[in-house]
Specification:
Number of helices: 14
Strand content: 15-25%
Oligomer: single chain
Helix content: 10-25%
Length: 664
C-alpha cells in the first residue's frame, strides 16, 4: 500500500514510492544508471563547472542507494522490467531531491565523491551543436526547480500531476510555478526539445578527458613550493605574532561567470568538419569549417575570446563596434570557429555563436591596438551566409567566402553591360580586395558569386558591401505581367535584374552601417504616361535588417534609362517597422505630380497587381477602374488616395495614416 498525503504548503497529493530492498534498488540503479545521471546533471547548477558537474551527477546517483532497505533474498528468476518501475520511481525522487539540495548550495563539496580522481585531469561531456548550446544557456538562466520540472516533463515524460507530486516530495517550494516555467521554456525550444536533451551535450556518461592548464599548474606548483618554504621559515616567529583576523570567504561563482569562463575557453570552440557543408540539409554558417593558418594558435584565440567576454566593459582596452540591433552581451556558450589567420597585416579571428558574427583583429607588428566587431547573423542561409568581411583597407574589403561558393567576381552595378571581373581567392577562401563605392556614385561595386552544384543550389547572386560583417543580398521582383501570377523576388544577375539595379544602385551607400541583411527592388507597377511620353516604372525598395525591421522607399522612374528613381514623398515620417513590400505586405498604392514635356501638369497614381480601382480626393478628385490613374490638373497639395482590393477592403495610399476609429 502507498501512503497518500497532502504535502505541506502545496496542496499536491503525495504518492511516495515505497522504499525498496537494497538488491532491488541496486538492480534498478544499474539498469537505469545513464538516465538517472543525465537527470541529475540537468538539475545541477552550471556554476559548478563542467568537470565538477559531471562528477556531482555520478556521485548523487550512486549515493541514492544509501537509504534503501536491507537486502532481500534474490529470486532465482530475474524480475521483469515492469516490476522495477516502483523502484525506479523511488530512485528518481531520491536523485531529484539530492540534486535540488545540492543546487541550493553553490559551493557543494565533492570531497567524498566515490569516484576515481586523477590530479590535473578534467572530464566533461562532448560539445553539441548550436541548438544544444542555446538550450544549455537557457537552462543556466532558470532556477534548479525549473530545470528539474523541464527534465521530468521532457526527458522522463512524466505527466503534470506526477511531475508536480515528485517535485513537491523532493522539497521544491512551488512545483506548479516551476512546471509552468518549464512549459514556457519547452515552447520556446520547440518540438525537438527531447532530442536535444538526449544529445551529447547533456550526456555525463559519455565524456572527454583533458588535462588542466599545464603551464598554470607548473606555476602554481612553484608558487606552492615557495609558499611552503616561507611558511616553514616563519613557523618559529608565528607564535610571537598576534593571530590575524579570519579571511573573508570567497564569494561563490555565479552562473553567468561560469558560463562566460566556459565560453572563453579556446579548447571548447566548436569546429565543423571540412566537408560537412556538402552533406547537410542546414547550409548556413554552422556548416563553415575552421580555416586559416592560426586555427591552432591558442594564445590568439584566448585573446579574441577574452575581448569578447569583456565586451563593452569600460575597463577593456579593446574598442568594440556593435552593429545596429545586435546584442552586445558576452558569450554564454562555446562559439564556432570560422577563421583564424593573417590578413592585411592583422591577425583576424572570426567566430559565430548561432546568432552573431564576431570579428577580432590585432596588428601583427608595430603600433595600433586590437578591435572587436559584433553583428547579427541569425538565420544566415545559403545567400546571407555566403561571405564575411575579414579586412578593410583603402584598397577595399576582403571577404571570407563560404565553402559552397565555387565562383566569385566583381561587377559595377552602374554598368550592367560590362562583364564581371573574376576575383582571385586564396586557398583559405579569402578574396582579393573588393573596391568600395566611389563618391558621387561614379561606381557601385558588388560581389557576384555562384554556389556549388554539390548542394544543388547552382545559381549566382549579388552581394553588396554596406559596411557590415556580412554583405547584403540584392534581389529584384519584376513588374506584374498581364494575367501572370504574382512574382517572387529573384536573383538580380539576369540582364533585366542588372538593368533594374543600375537605376537603384546609387541609393545603396545611404544604407551603410544600418544593419541591413537584404535589399529587394520591387517593380510593383508599370504606367503609360500621358501624351505618349513613354512607360514609367513604380518601385518599392525594401532594405530589411537582421531584426526583421526594414527601411522602405517608394519611387517612380521616367522612361529615360539614365534617370534615377524619384522618391514618392509620404505625408508623414516613414514607419519604423512595416510589412510594406514584403511577402506580408503585397498591396501598395502611391501617387505623385508630374510635368509632361509639353509643360502640362498631371497627377499620376499606380497600385500593385491586386488593385481593382483607385480613388483620389483633395486637390485632385477622380475615380478609375484599374491599377493606374492619370489626371490633368493645375492643382497642388496633398492628395488622399484609396484603392480597392477584393477580399481585403480599402487600401490607403503610401504613407497615409490609418483611419482612426470613428473618423471620416
Amino acid at each position: 500500500m502507498q501512503s497518500h498525503d497532502i504535502l505541506p504548503g502545496t496542496g499536491i497529493p503525495s504518492a511516495a514510492p515505497p522504499r525498496p530492498g537494497l538488491s532491488d534498488a541496486e538492480a534498478a540503479l544499474v539498469e537505469h544508471y545513464p538516465r538517472l545521471v543525465r537527470l541529475a546533471h540537468l538539475i545541477l547548477p552550471p556554476a559548478l563547472g563542467r568537470h565538477r558537474r559531471v562528477l556531482a551527477a555520478h556521485a548523487l546517483v550512486q549515493r541514492s542507494l544509501a537509504a534503501a532497505g536491507p537486502a532481500r533474498a534474490r529470486p532465482r528468476v530475474p524480475a521483469p522490467r515492469g516490476a522495477r518501475e516502483p523502484v525506479l520511481a523511488w530512485l528518481r525522487q531520491r536523485v531529484v531531491s539530492a540534486a535540488l539540495r545540492a543546487a541550493g548550495r553553490p559551493r557543494w563539496s565533492l570531497r567524498r565523491t566515490p569516484l576515481p580522481a586523477v590530479f590535473g585531469l578534467r572530464v566533461f561531456p562532448r560539445a553539441g551543436g548550436d541548438d544544444e548550446t542555446a538550450l544549455e544557456a537557457a537552462l543556466a538562466a532558470v532556477t534548479p526547480e525549473v530545470r528539474a520540472a523541464f527534465a521530468l516533463r521532457v526527458l522522463e515524460g512524466l505527466a503534470d500531476h506526477a511531475a508536480a507530486a515528485l517535485l513537491a516530495g523532493a522539497g521544491a517550494p512551488r512545483p506548479d510555478e516551476a512546471l509552468r516555467a518549464a512549459e514556457r521554456l519547452r515552447a520556446t525550444v520547440g518540438a525537438h526539445a527531447e532530442s536535444l536533451l538526449h544529445g551529447v551535450e547533456f550526456d555525463p556518461c559519455t565524456v572527454q578527458a583533458r588535462p588542466t592548464d599545464l603551464l598554470r599548474r607548473r606555476r602554481r606548483a612553484r608558487v606552492a613550493a615557495l609558499a611552503a618554504t616561507v611558511l616553514l621559515t616563519a613557523t618559529t616567529a608565528a607564535v610571537l605574532t598576534p593571530r590575524p583576523a579570519p579571511r573573508a570567504p570567497v564569494p561563490p561563482v555565479g552562473a553567468v561567470t561560469a558560463a562566460s569562463a566556459r565560453a572563453a575557453d579556446p579548447a571548447l570552440l566548436l569546429r565543423t568538419p571540412a566537408e560537412r557543408w556538402a552533406d547537410t540539409a542546414r547550409v548556413d554558417l554552422s556548416a563553415w569549417p575552421a580555416r586559416g593558418s592560426r586555427t591552432g594558435d591558442t594564445a590568439l584565440l584566448s585573446r579574441a575570446l577574452g575581448a569578447w567576454a569583456r565586451g563593452t566593459d569600460e575597463r577593456t582596452e579593446v574598442p568594440v563596434t556593435v552593429a545596429p540591433g545586435t546584442p552586445a552581451s558576452p558569450p554564454v556558450a562555446p562559439a564556432r570557429l570560422l577563421f583564424a589567420g593573417p590578413v592585411d597585416g592583422s591577425a583576424v579571428v572570426l567566430l559565430h555563436d548561432g546568432g552573431r558574427l564576431v570579428r577580432y583583429a590585432e596588428p601583427l607588428t608595430g603600433g595600433g591596438g586590437a578591435e572587436l566587431h559584433l553583428a547579427r547573423a541569425d538565420d544566415a542561409d545559403v545567400t546571407a551566409g555566403a561571405a564575411v568581411a575579414v579586412s578593410r583597407t583603402p584598397l577595399g574589403a576582403r571577404f571570407l567566402l563560404a565553402p559552397w561558393i565555387d565562383e566569385s567576381a566583381v561587377r559595377d552595378l552602374l554598368r550592367p553591360g560590362v562583364p564581371a571581373r573574376r576575383l582571385n581567392v586564396s586557398a583559405d577562401g579569402v578574396t582579393d580586395p573588393v573596391p568600395s563605392a566611389e563618391g558621387e556614385c561614379r561606381s557601385a561595386p558588388a560581389l557576384q558569386v555562384r554556389s556549388s552544384t554539390r548542394i544543388v543550389e547552382d545559381h549566382s547572386f549579388l552581394l553588396a558591401d554596406l559596411g557590415e560583417l556580412a554583405p547584403a543580398h540584392l534581389t529584384w521582383t519584376p513588374a506584374p505581367g498581364t494575367g501572370a501570377p504574382a512574382r517572387q523576388p529573384r536573383e538580380a544577375t539576369s540582364a533585366e535584374g542588372l538593368a533594374a539595379w543600375a537605376r537603384s544602385a546609387c541609393a545603396l551607400p545611404g544604407l551603410r552601417g544600418t544593419g541591413v541583411r537584404a535589399v529587394n527592388r520591387w517593380e510593383f507597377a508599370r504606367q503609360a504616361l500621358p501624351e505618349g511620353a513613354g512607360l514609367a516604372t513604380w518601385t518599392c525598395t525594401r532594405a530589411e535588417r537582421w531584426d526583421g525591421r526594414a527601411r522602405v522607399e517608394v519611387a517612380w522612374e521616367r522612361p529615360d534609362a539614365r534617370s534615377r528613381p524619384t522618391p514618392v514623398r509620404a505625408p508623414g515620417p516613414p514607419p519604423p517597422d512595416t510589412a510594406a513590400c514584403s511577402r506580408f505586405g503585397q498591396h501598395l498604392l502611391a501617387g505623385t505630380y508630374w510635368t509632361a514635356p509639353s509643360g502640362a501638369r498631371y497627377y499620376l497614381a499606380a497600385g500593385s497587381r491586386a488593385l481593382t480601382a483607385i480613388t483620389a480626393r483633395g486637390p485632385v478628385s477622380a475615380t478609375v477602374r484599374g491599377r493606374v490613374l492619370a489626371v490633368r490638373t493645375h492643382a497642388d497639395g496633398r492628395v488622399r488616395l484609396t484603392g480597392a482590393v477584393p477580399g481585403s477592403g480599402e487600401l490607403r495610399g503610401w504613407g497615409e495614416p490609418e483611419r482612426a476609429p470613428g473618423g471620416p
